[in-house]
Amino acid sequence: MSSNPLFVNFPDRRSAYLAMDTLEELGYNVGVTDSPEEQELCLRLEKNDVTTALEIIQTYGGVIADPEIVH
Fold first, then answer.
1. Which of the residue ranges 45-49, 50-54, 56-60 would you say has the lowest mean pLDDT?
2. Which residue among 1, 15, 16, 66 sits deepest, i.e. has the most Cβ atoms within 10 Å of its Cβ?
3. How much is the pTM?
4. The CATH number of 6-64 is which of 3.30.70.120, 3.40.50.150, 3.30.420.10, 3.40.640.10?
């Protein structure tokens, strides 16, 4: 079963890639999309813990993208 993706914006590439590495180590399905101003991750939570994902996102300065604006 597939869940809707969660898009997260980071202030820079380094922060996005650090968050992505951590999330991948914990088994999250995560990908990267480039944007001119920020780095954006696409995260599918499926069977993973939402709270842990949000804590990792926050640790690296990530902000959940507004679903009305994104894709």
1. 45-49
2. 16
3. 0.81
4. 3.30.70.120
